[in-house]
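Quick one: structure tokens for this chain, please?
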Amino acid sequence: MKGRSGAVRRSLRAGAALGLALLLSGCKTDLYTNLTEYEANQMLAVMMANGIPADKAALGEAFTVRVEKDDMLRAIALLNDKGYPRNTRESIGKIFEKSGIISSPFEERVRYIYALGEEVAQTLSQIDGVVSARVHIVLPEEPQLGQPVRPSSAAVFIKHEPNVDLDFFVPQIRRLVSSAIQGLDYAAVAVVLTEAAPTEVAPLQTETRMVSVLPGLSVPEADAGGVRMMVYALAGTLLLLLTGSVAGLVYFLRGRRRTVRAAPAVDPGNALMEPS
């Protein structure tokens, strides 16, 4: 009896675990993967502030941002307007890694100019409202004897969010770039600002089509799949519980019947009478 009861309990626990797994397996899908925790948190904050439910999951040292399947289009459009995910920029240490034993002076110079522009662009990206920033630097080589000196110059391109005015910030941008690059004059820095066009997203339908899942129960068509899954999981769990209860009751009754049959019969003729 104890062995059978244990088997019934194990089957019930397995059924309950299966039903819980089905209930928790929502319709969320991966939106962006291989993110840092900081960037994942920033993207979650943007989406949740705009009414899009989302969560994150850790995959080793990287993170994944997930949203409902029906919200994926709106989430991508919103994050694109905010400049997420950010472009991964190489650091100066990464750029100056030598692949060979000896690097030519030209390779060293190209890597230096590229790394310097990336570092300055990374700083400009921290300005509120900036979607993306690029910095192109021109550093002429040292002139030979008798040749005129060609000045250095830089071009800054900034794409910012709609309705964000950065015109008043142009002098500070030029001062920052000229101060970060040796030998660059303030007047030789050109800044171009452009407003990012918002991504067009189809508006939500005002009329929601209802679908009958159970007699007397209607849900929106977009939620019908999830509701059916929950109903099936609940029905399966209840069926397993009912089956286990019936099996336990049958085992109990059979065991009791065997106990009654195995009990010795009492002969009335041999019964002892108490003296009066």
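Confidence is low (pLDDT under 50) at residues 20-25.
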